[in-house]
Write a structure and sequence with these properties.
The complex is a heterodimer of chains A (178) and B (431). With 178 residues, chain A is α/β, with parallel strands linked by helices. Chain A is 34% helix and 14% strand. Helices cover 40% and strands 13% of the residues of chain B. The chains are: A alpha/beta (178), B alpha/beta (431). The interface between A and B is large, with 47 and 57 residues.
Amino acid sequence: MTAACAIRLNSALTPEQKALFQSPDQIRDVLATARTIAIVGLSAEPQKASHFVASHLQDAGYRIVPVNPRGGVILGETVYGDLAQIPFAVDVVDVFRPSPEVDALAEAAIQIGAKVLWQQLRINNIPAAMRVREAGLVSIVDACIKMEHGRYSGGLHTVGMNTELVTARRARFAGSAF
Amino acid sequence: MPLPRSFGFETRMLHAGHVPDAETGARAVPIHQSTSFVFHDTKHAAHLFELKQYGNIYSRISNPTTAVFEERIASLENGTGALAVASGMAAQLTTFLTLLSPGDEIVASSHLYGGSVTQLTHTLKKLSLKVHFVDPTRLENWEQAITPRTRLLYGEIIGNPRGSILDVERLAKLGSAHGIPLVVDATFATPYLCRPIDWGATIVVHSATKFIGGHGNSLGGVIVDSGKFDYSSFATLADPSDAYHGLRFHDTFAHYAFLMKARVETVRDTGACISPTNSFLLIQGLETLSVRMERHVHNALHVAKFLDDHPKVAWVSYAGLPDHPDHALAKKYLPLGPGAVFTFGLLAPTPADAHEKGKQLIERLQLFSHLANVGDARSLVIHPASTTHQQLSEEELVRAGVGPEMVRLSVGLETSEDLLWDLDQALEGIP
Protein backbone atom coordinates (compact mmCIF):
# COMPACT_ATOMS: atom_id res chain seq x y z
CA MET A 1 0.00 0.00 0.00
CA THR A 2 1.26 3.45 -0.85
CA ALA A 3 1.72 6.24 1.66
CA ALA A 4 -1.49 8.15 2.35
CA CYS A 5 -1.88 11.84 1.62
CA ALA A 6 -2.53 14.08 4.60
CA ILE A 7 -6.21 15.12 4.73
CA ARG A 8 -6.30 18.48 6.48
CA LEU A 9 -9.36 20.45 5.35
CA ASN A 10 -12.84 20.77 6.86
CA SER A 11 -12.19 19.31 10.28
CA ALA A 12 -12.86 20.77 13.72
CA LEU A 13 -10.63 18.16 15.41
CA THR A 14 -7.17 18.78 16.83
CA PRO A 15 -4.25 17.13 15.00
CA GLU A 16 -4.03 14.56 17.82
CA GLN A 17 -7.75 13.78 17.53
CA LYS A 18 -7.47 13.60 13.73
CA ALA A 19 -4.72 11.01 14.03
CA LEU A 20 -7.00 8.84 16.20
CA PHE A 21 -10.40 9.42 14.61
CA GLN A 22 -9.88 10.48 10.98
CA SER A 23 -7.00 8.31 9.81
CA PRO A 24 -7.12 8.13 5.99
CA ASP A 25 -5.84 4.54 6.10
CA GLN A 26 -8.59 3.47 8.50
CA ILE A 27 -11.28 5.27 6.52
CA ARG A 28 -10.15 3.68 3.26
CA ASP A 29 -10.06 0.29 4.95
CA VAL A 30 -13.58 0.70 6.38
CA LEU A 31 -14.99 1.76 3.02
CA ALA A 32 -13.23 -1.09 1.21
CA THR A 33 -14.30 -3.87 3.60
CA ALA A 34 -17.67 -2.87 5.09
CA ARG A 35 -20.82 -4.38 3.60
CA THR A 36 -23.62 -3.49 6.04
CA ILE A 37 -24.07 0.00 7.44
CA ALA A 38 -26.67 0.79 10.13
CA ILE A 39 -27.70 4.44 9.92
CA VAL A 40 -29.00 5.73 13.25
CA GLY A 41 -31.32 8.70 12.79
CA LEU A 42 -31.94 8.08 9.08
CA SER A 43 -34.81 10.31 7.95
CA ALA A 44 -37.58 9.16 5.62
CA GLU A 45 -37.59 12.63 4.04
CA PRO A 46 -35.80 12.46 0.67
CA GLN A 47 -34.24 15.95 0.98
CA LYS A 48 -32.58 15.39 4.37
CA ALA A 49 -28.82 14.91 4.54
CA SER A 50 -29.13 11.43 6.08
CA HIS A 51 -31.34 10.32 3.20
CA PHE A 52 -28.78 11.57 0.67
CA VAL A 53 -26.09 9.62 2.46
CA ALA A 54 -28.12 6.42 2.65
CA SER A 55 -29.14 6.60 -1.00
CA HIS A 56 -25.54 7.20 -2.04
CA LEU A 57 -24.28 4.24 0.01
CA GLN A 58 -26.92 1.95 -1.51
CA ASP A 59 -25.91 3.03 -5.02
CA ALA A 60 -22.29 2.28 -4.08
CA GLY A 61 -23.26 -1.30 -3.22
CA TYR A 62 -23.55 -1.24 0.58
CA ARG A 63 -26.58 -2.60 2.43
CA ILE A 64 -28.02 0.14 4.59
CA VAL A 65 -30.04 -0.61 7.74
CA PRO A 66 -32.26 2.27 8.88
CA VAL A 67 -32.49 2.80 12.65
CA ASN A 68 -35.24 5.17 13.76
CA PRO A 69 -37.94 4.78 16.46
CA ARG A 70 -40.60 5.77 13.91
CA GLY A 71 -40.25 2.41 12.16
CA GLY A 72 -41.57 1.67 8.66
CA VAL A 73 -39.53 1.16 5.50
CA ILE A 74 -36.93 3.59 4.09
CA LEU A 75 -35.25 3.09 0.72
CA GLY A 76 -36.68 -0.43 0.59
CA GLU A 77 -35.15 -1.46 3.93
CA THR A 78 -37.00 -2.28 7.16
CA VAL A 79 -36.48 0.36 9.84
CA TYR A 80 -35.43 -0.94 13.27
CA GLY A 81 -36.26 0.93 16.49
CA ASP A 82 -32.77 0.57 17.89
CA LEU A 83 -29.48 -1.19 17.18
CA ALA A 84 -30.28 -4.17 19.46
CA GLN A 85 -33.31 -5.07 17.33
CA ILE A 86 -31.29 -5.65 14.15
CA PRO A 87 -31.43 -9.46 13.65
CA PHE A 88 -28.16 -9.72 11.67
CA ALA A 89 -24.59 -8.46 11.96
CA VAL A 90 -23.70 -4.92 10.93
CA ASP A 91 -20.20 -3.71 10.11
CA VAL A 92 -20.62 0.02 10.62
CA VAL A 93 -22.87 2.06 12.93
CA ASP A 94 -23.22 5.48 11.29
CA VAL A 95 -24.64 8.14 13.61
CA PHE A 96 -26.91 11.06 12.63
CA ARG A 97 -27.89 11.94 16.23
CA PRO A 98 -26.71 14.79 18.47
CA SER A 99 -23.39 14.25 20.28
CA PRO A 100 -24.93 13.66 23.78
CA GLU A 101 -26.79 10.62 22.41
CA VAL A 102 -23.60 9.00 21.14
CA ASP A 103 -22.59 7.60 24.57
CA ALA A 104 -25.53 5.18 24.61
CA LEU A 105 -25.10 4.39 20.91
CA ALA A 106 -21.43 3.58 21.50
CA GLU A 107 -22.40 0.99 24.15
CA ALA A 108 -25.03 -0.48 21.82
CA ALA A 109 -22.54 -0.66 18.94
CA ILE A 110 -20.12 -2.57 21.15
CA GLN A 111 -22.94 -4.88 22.34
CA ILE A 112 -24.04 -5.86 18.82
CA GLY A 113 -20.47 -6.54 17.73
CA ALA A 114 -20.16 -3.74 15.17
CA LYS A 115 -16.65 -3.15 13.83
CA VAL A 116 -16.93 0.61 13.35
CA LEU A 117 -18.66 3.53 15.08
CA TRP A 118 -18.85 6.45 12.65
CA GLN A 119 -19.97 9.87 13.99
CA GLN A 120 -21.13 12.08 11.12
CA LEU A 121 -19.95 15.60 10.28
CA ARG A 122 -20.33 18.04 13.23
CA ILE A 123 -21.00 15.17 15.65
CA ASN A 124 -18.02 14.77 17.92
CA ASN A 125 -18.45 12.95 21.19
CA ILE A 126 -14.80 12.28 21.94
CA PRO A 127 -15.31 10.25 25.19
CA ALA A 128 -17.68 7.90 23.33
CA ALA A 129 -15.19 7.70 20.47
CA MET A 130 -12.43 6.76 22.95
CA ARG A 131 -14.70 4.18 24.58
CA VAL A 132 -15.37 2.25 21.36
CA ARG A 133 -11.73 2.52 20.37
CA GLU A 134 -10.70 0.90 23.66
CA ALA A 135 -13.27 -1.83 22.97
CA GLY A 136 -11.43 -2.59 19.71
CA LEU A 137 -13.72 -0.83 17.23
CA VAL A 138 -12.58 1.57 14.57
CA SER A 139 -13.80 5.01 15.66
CA ILE A 140 -14.45 7.81 13.17
CA VAL A 141 -15.52 11.29 14.33
CA ASP A 142 -16.83 14.46 12.63
CA ALA A 143 -16.73 13.14 9.06
CA CYS A 144 -19.37 12.38 6.46
CA ILE A 145 -19.28 8.79 5.21
CA LYS A 146 -20.72 9.88 1.84
CA MET A 147 -18.06 12.58 1.42
CA GLU A 148 -15.31 10.16 2.45
CA HIS A 149 -16.62 7.57 0.01
CA GLY A 150 -16.75 10.32 -2.60
CA ARG A 151 -13.16 11.30 -1.82
CA TYR A 152 -11.81 7.81 -2.54
CA SER A 153 -14.28 6.72 -5.24
CA GLY A 154 -13.79 9.77 -7.47
CA GLY A 155 -17.25 11.25 -6.88
CA LEU A 156 -16.14 14.37 -5.02
CA HIS A 157 -13.56 15.00 -7.72
CA THR A 158 -16.30 14.91 -10.36
CA VAL A 159 -17.86 18.04 -8.86
CA GLY A 160 -14.57 19.90 -8.52
CA MET A 161 -13.94 19.31 -4.82
CA ASN A 162 -10.49 19.13 -3.30
CA THR A 163 -9.98 15.47 -2.35
CA GLU A 164 -6.40 16.26 -1.22
CA LEU A 165 -5.30 13.05 -2.96
CA VAL A 166 -2.08 13.33 -4.94
CA THR A 167 -0.60 10.35 -6.73
CA ALA A 168 1.04 9.41 -10.01
CA ARG A 169 -0.11 5.79 -9.60
CA ARG A 170 -2.64 4.48 -12.09
CA ALA A 171 -6.12 3.85 -10.61
CA ARG A 172 -6.63 0.14 -10.02
CA PHE A 173 -10.17 0.11 -11.39
CA ALA A 174 -12.56 2.66 -12.85
CA GLY A 175 -13.48 5.50 -10.52
CA SER A 176 -11.56 4.29 -7.50
CA ALA A 177 -8.64 5.37 -5.42
CA PHE A 178 -9.28 2.85 -2.60
CA MET B 1 3.80 2.87 7.45
CA PRO B 2 5.17 6.25 6.37
CA LEU B 3 3.49 9.38 7.76
CA PRO B 4 0.74 10.99 5.66
CA ARG B 5 2.34 13.51 3.32
CA SER B 6 1.30 17.10 2.55
CA PHE B 7 2.73 17.74 -0.90
CA GLY B 8 4.26 21.06 -1.95
CA PHE B 9 2.82 23.69 -4.29
CA GLU B 10 4.82 22.67 -7.36
CA THR B 11 4.01 18.99 -6.89
CA ARG B 12 0.30 19.78 -6.67
CA MET B 13 0.60 22.10 -9.69
CA LEU B 14 1.49 19.00 -11.71
CA HIS B 15 -0.49 16.23 -10.01
CA ALA B 16 -3.45 17.46 -7.95
CA GLY B 17 -6.84 16.50 -9.34
CA HIS B 18 -5.62 13.92 -11.83
CA VAL B 19 -5.22 10.22 -11.08
CA PRO B 20 -4.25 8.39 -14.30
CA ASP B 21 -7.36 6.40 -15.21
CA ALA B 22 -7.52 2.60 -14.88
CA GLU B 23 -8.51 1.95 -18.48
CA THR B 24 -5.88 3.87 -20.49
CA GLY B 25 -3.36 5.14 -17.96
CA ALA B 26 -3.08 8.36 -20.02
CA ARG B 27 -0.47 10.56 -18.33
CA ALA B 28 -1.58 13.88 -19.81
CA VAL B 29 -5.09 14.95 -18.82
CA PRO B 30 -7.46 13.62 -21.53
CA ILE B 31 -9.77 16.15 -23.22
CA HIS B 32 -13.32 14.87 -22.79
CA GLN B 33 -14.86 16.85 -25.65
CA SER B 34 -18.35 15.51 -25.05
CA THR B 35 -21.55 17.41 -24.32
CA SER B 36 -23.14 14.54 -22.42
CA PHE B 37 -22.47 11.27 -20.61
CA VAL B 38 -24.29 7.92 -20.87
CA PHE B 39 -26.16 6.74 -17.77
CA HIS B 40 -25.82 3.18 -16.43
CA ASP B 41 -29.61 2.84 -16.19
CA THR B 42 -32.74 4.87 -15.44
CA LYS B 43 -32.18 4.77 -11.68
CA HIS B 44 -28.63 6.09 -12.11
CA ALA B 45 -29.97 8.90 -14.30
CA ALA B 46 -32.62 9.84 -11.73
CA HIS B 47 -30.14 9.80 -8.84
CA LEU B 48 -27.70 12.02 -10.73
CA PHE B 49 -30.45 14.55 -11.38
CA GLU B 50 -31.52 14.40 -7.72
CA LEU B 51 -27.86 15.04 -6.70
CA LYS B 52 -27.94 11.73 -4.79
CA GLN B 53 -24.98 10.49 -6.78
CA TYR B 54 -21.94 12.37 -7.99
CA GLY B 55 -21.41 11.99 -11.70
CA ASN B 56 -21.47 13.67 -15.07
CA ILE B 57 -24.72 14.45 -16.84
CA TYR B 58 -23.99 17.29 -19.24
CA SER B 59 -20.89 19.48 -19.70
CA ARG B 60 -22.79 22.64 -18.85
CA ILE B 61 -22.79 21.34 -15.26
CA SER B 62 -19.64 19.22 -15.00
CA ASN B 63 -17.04 17.62 -17.26
CA PRO B 64 -14.14 15.23 -16.46
CA THR B 65 -11.45 17.47 -18.00
CA THR B 66 -12.82 20.55 -16.29
CA ALA B 67 -12.95 18.65 -12.98
CA VAL B 68 -9.16 18.23 -13.12
CA PHE B 69 -8.71 21.96 -13.60
CA GLU B 70 -11.15 22.65 -10.76
CA GLU B 71 -9.62 20.30 -8.23
CA ARG B 72 -6.11 21.42 -9.13
CA ILE B 73 -6.82 25.10 -8.60
CA ALA B 74 -8.74 24.31 -5.38
CA SER B 75 -5.66 22.46 -4.13
CA LEU B 76 -3.31 25.32 -5.04
CA GLU B 77 -5.56 27.88 -3.32
CA ASN B 78 -6.01 25.66 -0.22
CA GLY B 79 -9.76 25.72 -0.87
CA THR B 80 -12.39 23.05 -0.30
CA GLY B 81 -13.28 22.93 -3.99
CA ALA B 82 -13.68 24.97 -7.15
CA LEU B 83 -16.03 25.67 -10.02
CA ALA B 84 -14.70 26.63 -13.44
CA VAL B 85 -16.80 28.89 -15.66
CA ALA B 86 -16.63 30.70 -18.99
CA SER B 87 -14.56 33.71 -17.91
CA GLY B 88 -13.48 35.82 -14.97
CA MET B 89 -16.58 37.98 -15.40
CA ALA B 90 -18.71 34.82 -15.21
CA ALA B 91 -16.84 33.74 -12.06
CA GLN B 92 -17.72 36.88 -10.14
CA LEU B 93 -21.30 37.06 -11.48
CA THR B 94 -21.87 33.39 -10.58
CA THR B 95 -20.66 34.14 -7.04
CA PHE B 96 -23.02 37.10 -6.68
CA LEU B 97 -26.02 35.26 -8.15
CA THR B 98 -25.42 32.28 -5.84
CA LEU B 99 -25.03 34.21 -2.59
CA LEU B 100 -27.32 37.21 -2.98
CA SER B 101 -31.05 37.92 -3.07
CA PRO B 102 -32.75 41.05 -4.47
CA GLY B 103 -32.28 43.96 -2.06
CA ASP B 104 -28.95 42.69 -0.77
CA GLU B 105 -25.92 44.97 -0.85
CA ILE B 106 -22.25 44.62 -1.75
CA VAL B 107 -19.41 46.80 -0.50
CA ALA B 108 -16.73 46.77 -3.20
CA SER B 109 -13.33 48.31 -3.74
CA SER B 110 -13.34 51.07 -6.35
CA HIS B 111 -9.95 49.82 -7.58
CA LEU B 112 -11.34 47.21 -9.95
CA TYR B 113 -11.05 46.22 -13.58
CA GLY B 114 -13.36 48.52 -15.59
CA GLY B 115 -15.51 45.61 -16.75
CA SER B 116 -16.10 44.59 -13.15
CA VAL B 117 -17.15 48.13 -12.21
CA THR B 118 -19.63 48.04 -15.08
CA GLN B 119 -20.99 44.62 -14.09
CA LEU B 120 -21.39 45.65 -10.47
CA THR B 121 -22.88 49.03 -11.25
CA HIS B 122 -25.23 48.34 -14.13
CA THR B 123 -25.94 44.61 -14.47
CA LEU B 124 -26.39 44.03 -10.74
CA LYS B 125 -28.71 47.05 -10.56
CA LYS B 126 -31.07 45.23 -12.93
CA LEU B 127 -31.21 42.43 -10.34
CA SER B 128 -31.99 44.91 -7.52
CA LEU B 129 -28.55 44.45 -5.96
CA LYS B 130 -26.93 47.60 -4.64
CA VAL B 131 -23.19 48.23 -4.66
CA HIS B 132 -21.31 50.73 -2.49
CA PHE B 133 -17.85 51.46 -3.91
CA VAL B 134 -15.18 52.50 -1.43
CA ASP B 135 -11.56 53.59 -1.57
CA PRO B 136 -10.12 50.23 -0.48
CA THR B 137 -6.97 51.59 1.13
CA ARG B 138 -8.69 52.63 4.39
CA LEU B 139 -10.49 49.98 6.44
CA GLU B 140 -12.88 52.52 7.96
CA ASN B 141 -14.27 53.21 4.48
CA TRP B 142 -15.38 49.58 4.28
CA GLU B 143 -16.78 49.62 7.79
CA GLN B 144 -18.79 52.80 7.21
CA ALA B 145 -20.34 51.39 4.03
CA ILE B 146 -21.63 48.22 5.73
CA THR B 147 -25.41 48.27 6.37
CA PRO B 148 -27.75 45.59 7.79
CA ARG B 149 -28.34 44.50 4.17
CA THR B 150 -24.67 44.02 3.29
CA ARG B 151 -24.04 40.41 2.33
CA LEU B 152 -20.68 40.52 0.55
CA LEU B 153 -17.34 42.38 0.50
CA TYR B 154 -15.49 42.42 -2.82
CA GLY B 155 -12.02 43.51 -3.91
CA GLU B 156 -9.02 42.66 -6.09
CA ILE B 157 -5.88 41.50 -4.28
CA ILE B 158 -3.86 43.62 -6.72
CA GLY B 159 -6.15 46.37 -8.01
CA ASN B 160 -6.39 46.86 -11.76
CA PRO B 161 -4.80 49.02 -13.00
CA ARG B 162 -3.35 51.12 -10.18
CA GLY B 163 -1.75 48.20 -8.33
CA SER B 164 -3.08 48.91 -4.84
CA ILE B 165 -2.90 45.91 -2.51
CA LEU B 166 -6.00 44.71 -0.63
CA ASP B 167 -5.45 44.29 3.12
CA VAL B 168 -7.09 40.86 3.04
CA GLU B 169 -6.44 39.82 6.63
CA ARG B 170 -7.98 42.93 8.20
CA LEU B 171 -10.84 42.98 5.71
CA ALA B 172 -11.63 39.31 6.36
CA LYS B 173 -11.75 40.03 10.10
CA LEU B 174 -14.12 42.94 9.49
CA GLY B 175 -16.36 40.71 7.37
CA SER B 176 -16.23 37.95 9.94
CA ALA B 177 -17.25 40.34 12.73
CA HIS B 178 -20.34 41.27 10.69
CA GLY B 179 -21.07 37.75 9.38
CA ILE B 180 -20.23 38.83 5.80
CA PRO B 181 -18.11 36.75 3.42
CA LEU B 182 -15.08 38.38 1.75
CA VAL B 183 -14.72 37.59 -1.96
CA VAL B 184 -11.28 38.33 -3.43
CA ASP B 185 -10.38 38.50 -7.10
CA ALA B 186 -6.82 37.15 -7.14
CA THR B 187 -6.32 37.21 -10.91
CA PHE B 188 -3.16 39.35 -10.88
CA ALA B 189 -1.54 37.30 -8.11
CA THR B 190 -2.37 33.67 -8.99
CA PRO B 191 -2.16 31.17 -6.10
CA TYR B 192 1.61 31.09 -6.49
CA LEU B 193 2.07 34.70 -5.33
CA CYS B 194 -0.82 34.94 -2.82
CA ARG B 195 -3.44 32.58 -1.40
CA PRO B 196 -6.16 34.85 0.07
CA ILE B 197 -7.91 31.94 1.82
CA ASP B 198 -4.82 31.55 4.02
CA TRP B 199 -5.45 35.16 5.15
CA GLY B 200 -9.14 34.61 5.90
CA ALA B 201 -10.89 35.28 2.57
CA THR B 202 -14.08 33.24 2.09
CA ILE B 203 -14.08 32.91 -1.69
CA VAL B 204 -11.44 33.54 -4.36
CA VAL B 205 -12.29 34.22 -7.98
CA HIS B 206 -9.95 34.33 -10.96
CA SER B 207 -9.93 35.26 -14.55
CA ALA B 208 -7.94 32.13 -15.47
CA THR B 209 -7.55 33.69 -18.91
CA LYS B 210 -4.62 35.67 -17.51
CA PHE B 211 -1.58 34.23 -15.72
CA ILE B 212 -3.16 30.85 -14.90
CA GLY B 213 -3.56 29.98 -18.59
CA GLY B 214 -0.59 32.22 -19.23
CA HIS B 215 -0.43 31.99 -23.01
CA GLY B 216 -3.30 34.19 -24.15
CA ASN B 217 -5.13 31.33 -25.84
CA SER B 218 -8.16 30.48 -23.70
CA LEU B 219 -10.88 32.28 -21.79
CA GLY B 220 -11.90 30.84 -18.45
CA GLY B 221 -12.79 31.75 -14.91
CA VAL B 222 -12.78 29.89 -11.64
CA ILE B 223 -14.37 30.23 -8.18
CA VAL B 224 -12.69 28.67 -5.13
CA ASP B 225 -14.47 28.37 -1.76
CA SER B 226 -12.60 28.10 1.51
CA GLY B 227 -15.35 25.92 3.01
CA LYS B 228 -14.88 27.86 6.24
CA PHE B 229 -17.73 30.38 6.18
CA ASP B 230 -20.85 29.65 8.25
CA TYR B 231 -23.69 30.08 5.74
CA SER B 232 -26.36 28.92 8.21
CA SER B 233 -27.88 32.42 8.30
CA PHE B 234 -27.55 33.01 4.55
CA ALA B 235 -31.04 32.70 3.05
CA THR B 236 -29.76 31.60 -0.35
CA LEU B 237 -27.88 28.61 1.07
CA ALA B 238 -29.75 27.81 4.29
CA ASP B 239 -33.38 28.10 3.19
CA PRO B 240 -35.14 25.37 1.16
CA SER B 241 -34.41 25.72 -2.55
CA ASP B 242 -37.44 25.90 -4.82
CA ALA B 243 -35.20 24.75 -7.66
CA TYR B 244 -34.48 21.40 -5.91
CA HIS B 245 -37.71 20.32 -4.17
CA GLY B 246 -36.92 22.14 -0.95
CA LEU B 247 -33.30 20.98 -0.66
CA ARG B 248 -31.35 22.94 1.96
CA PHE B 249 -27.86 23.18 0.47
CA HIS B 250 -26.17 24.17 3.74
CA ASP B 251 -27.72 21.26 5.69
CA THR B 252 -27.06 18.65 3.04
CA PHE B 253 -23.70 19.65 1.57
CA ALA B 254 -22.09 21.47 4.54
CA HIS B 255 -18.72 22.92 3.45
CA TYR B 256 -19.53 22.12 -0.19
CA ALA B 257 -22.89 23.97 -0.12
CA PHE B 258 -21.88 27.18 -1.89
CA LEU B 259 -20.03 25.41 -4.69
CA MET B 260 -22.76 22.81 -5.18
CA LYS B 261 -25.43 25.50 -5.44
CA ALA B 262 -23.26 27.60 -7.76
CA ARG B 263 -22.79 24.58 -10.02
CA VAL B 264 -26.18 22.87 -10.06
CA GLU B 265 -28.35 25.99 -9.87
CA THR B 266 -26.51 29.13 -10.99
CA VAL B 267 -24.33 27.83 -13.82
CA ARG B 268 -26.92 25.22 -14.79
CA ASP B 269 -29.33 28.12 -15.33
CA THR B 270 -27.03 30.85 -16.71
CA GLY B 271 -25.11 28.47 -18.97
CA ALA B 272 -21.84 30.30 -18.29
CA CYS B 273 -19.86 27.05 -18.58
CA ILE B 274 -16.28 26.51 -19.76
CA SER B 275 -15.27 24.44 -22.78
CA PRO B 276 -13.37 21.21 -21.95
CA THR B 277 -10.63 22.19 -24.39
CA ASN B 278 -10.18 25.50 -22.61
CA SER B 279 -9.96 23.60 -19.31
CA PHE B 280 -7.20 21.47 -20.81
CA LEU B 281 -5.25 24.52 -21.97
CA LEU B 282 -5.64 26.16 -18.56
CA ILE B 283 -4.35 22.96 -16.92
CA GLN B 284 -1.31 23.17 -19.22
CA GLY B 285 -0.81 26.70 -17.92
CA LEU B 286 -1.06 25.63 -14.28
CA GLU B 287 1.63 23.00 -14.75
CA THR B 288 4.29 25.71 -15.26
CA LEU B 289 2.70 28.41 -13.07
CA SER B 290 5.47 28.77 -10.47
CA VAL B 291 8.23 28.91 -13.07
CA ARG B 292 6.43 31.51 -15.15
CA MET B 293 5.39 33.67 -12.20
CA GLU B 294 8.94 33.83 -10.87
CA ARG B 295 10.08 35.10 -14.24
CA HIS B 296 7.09 37.46 -14.63
CA VAL B 297 7.80 39.22 -11.32
CA HIS B 298 11.54 39.28 -12.00
CA ASN B 299 11.03 40.97 -15.36
CA ALA B 300 8.32 43.28 -13.99
CA LEU B 301 10.61 44.64 -11.27
CA HIS B 302 13.41 45.09 -13.79
CA VAL B 303 11.15 47.06 -16.15
CA ALA B 304 9.54 49.06 -13.32
CA LYS B 305 12.95 50.16 -12.01
CA PHE B 306 14.08 51.12 -15.49
CA LEU B 307 11.01 53.29 -16.06
CA ASP B 308 11.25 54.79 -12.58
CA ASP B 309 14.76 56.02 -13.42
CA HIS B 310 13.86 57.30 -16.89
CA PRO B 311 13.84 61.11 -17.27
CA LYS B 312 10.73 61.12 -19.50
CA VAL B 313 8.65 59.11 -17.02
CA ALA B 314 6.64 61.09 -14.44
CA TRP B 315 5.57 58.20 -12.23
CA VAL B 316 5.51 54.40 -11.94
CA SER B 317 2.85 52.67 -9.85
CA TYR B 318 4.14 49.19 -8.95
CA ALA B 319 3.82 47.94 -5.39
CA GLY B 320 7.18 46.20 -5.82
CA LEU B 321 8.90 49.61 -5.74
CA PRO B 322 9.68 50.99 -2.25
CA ASP B 323 7.93 54.34 -2.90
CA HIS B 324 4.54 52.75 -3.67
CA PRO B 325 2.06 53.49 -0.83
CA ASP B 326 1.20 49.77 -0.55
CA HIS B 327 4.78 48.46 -0.66
CA ALA B 328 4.54 47.16 2.93
CA LEU B 329 1.25 45.37 2.21
CA ALA B 330 2.80 43.89 -0.94
CA LYS B 331 5.69 42.51 1.13
CA LYS B 332 3.22 40.97 3.55
CA TYR B 333 0.77 39.38 1.10
CA LEU B 334 2.96 38.93 -1.99
CA PRO B 335 6.50 38.35 -0.70
CA LEU B 336 7.66 36.89 -4.03
CA GLY B 337 6.50 40.00 -5.90
CA PRO B 338 3.23 41.87 -6.53
CA GLY B 339 2.53 40.45 -9.98
CA ALA B 340 3.62 41.71 -13.37
CA VAL B 341 0.94 44.24 -14.30
CA PHE B 342 1.54 47.89 -13.48
CA THR B 343 1.08 51.40 -14.79
CA PHE B 344 3.17 54.49 -15.46
CA GLY B 345 2.73 57.98 -16.87
CA LEU B 346 4.90 60.18 -19.06
CA LEU B 347 5.99 63.68 -18.13
CA ALA B 348 3.86 66.23 -19.94
CA PRO B 349 2.68 69.81 -19.34
CA THR B 350 -1.07 69.06 -19.75
CA PRO B 351 -3.36 65.98 -19.47
CA ALA B 352 -4.09 66.15 -23.19
CA ASP B 353 -0.38 66.24 -23.93
CA ALA B 354 0.18 63.27 -21.62
CA HIS B 355 -2.58 61.33 -23.36
CA GLU B 356 -0.95 62.09 -26.74
CA LYS B 357 2.51 61.05 -25.59
CA GLY B 358 1.12 57.80 -24.14
CA LYS B 359 -0.42 56.98 -27.51
CA GLN B 360 2.85 57.79 -29.30
CA LEU B 361 4.76 55.49 -26.96
CA ILE B 362 2.37 52.60 -27.66
CA GLU B 363 2.69 53.20 -31.41
CA ARG B 364 6.50 53.02 -31.23
CA LEU B 365 6.84 49.83 -29.18
CA GLN B 366 8.12 46.81 -31.14
CA LEU B 367 7.97 43.94 -28.63
CA PHE B 368 5.03 44.89 -26.40
CA SER B 369 1.79 43.71 -28.04
CA HIS B 370 -0.89 46.40 -28.03
CA LEU B 371 -4.04 44.56 -26.96
CA ALA B 372 -6.68 44.26 -24.25
CA ASN B 373 -5.44 41.44 -22.06
CA VAL B 374 -2.93 40.81 -19.30
CA GLY B 375 -1.03 37.78 -18.07
CA ASP B 376 0.20 36.52 -21.43
CA ALA B 377 3.69 35.00 -21.64
CA ARG B 378 4.33 37.90 -24.06
CA SER B 379 4.59 41.50 -22.89
CA LEU B 380 1.49 43.63 -23.42
CA VAL B 381 0.66 47.33 -23.40
CA ILE B 382 -2.55 49.36 -23.37
CA HIS B 383 -3.93 52.82 -22.59
CA PRO B 384 -6.67 52.08 -19.98
CA ALA B 385 -8.60 55.40 -20.05
CA SER B 386 -9.52 54.94 -23.72
CA THR B 387 -9.95 51.13 -23.68
CA THR B 388 -10.36 48.81 -20.67
CA HIS B 389 -11.83 51.52 -18.45
CA GLN B 390 -13.51 53.49 -21.26
CA GLN B 391 -17.09 52.89 -20.09
CA LEU B 392 -16.37 54.57 -16.75
CA SER B 393 -17.57 58.12 -16.10
CA GLU B 394 -15.05 60.89 -15.34
CA GLU B 395 -15.82 60.49 -11.65
CA GLU B 396 -15.39 56.70 -11.78
CA LEU B 397 -12.07 57.13 -13.60
CA VAL B 398 -10.82 59.41 -10.84
CA ARG B 399 -12.02 56.92 -8.20
CA ALA B 400 -10.29 54.06 -9.99
CA GLY B 401 -7.15 56.19 -10.33
CA VAL B 402 -7.13 55.99 -14.12
CA GLY B 403 -5.63 59.22 -15.48
CA PRO B 404 -5.36 60.26 -19.15
CA GLU B 405 -1.58 59.80 -19.07
CA MET B 406 -1.68 56.25 -17.67
CA VAL B 407 -0.09 53.43 -19.67
CA ARG B 408 -0.53 49.84 -18.45
CA LEU B 409 2.06 47.11 -18.98
CA SER B 410 1.76 43.38 -18.49
CA VAL B 411 5.36 42.25 -18.40
CA GLY B 412 6.03 38.92 -20.12
CA LEU B 413 8.79 36.36 -20.15
CA GLU B 414 11.03 37.85 -22.88
CA THR B 415 14.73 38.57 -22.28
CA SER B 416 14.36 41.44 -19.84
CA GLU B 417 17.11 43.54 -21.51
CA ASP B 418 15.11 43.35 -24.74
CA LEU B 419 12.08 44.79 -22.97
CA LEU B 420 14.23 47.65 -21.63
CA TRP B 421 15.63 48.19 -25.12
CA ASP B 422 12.13 48.39 -26.56
CA LEU B 423 10.89 50.89 -23.98
CA ASP B 424 14.09 52.90 -24.33
CA GLN B 425 13.86 53.20 -28.11
CA ALA B 426 10.16 54.07 -27.93
CA LEU B 427 10.73 56.75 -25.26
CA GLU B 428 13.69 58.08 -27.24
CA GLY B 429 11.42 58.94 -30.17
CA ILE B 430 8.97 60.94 -28.10
CA PRO B 431 9.60 64.71 -28.02
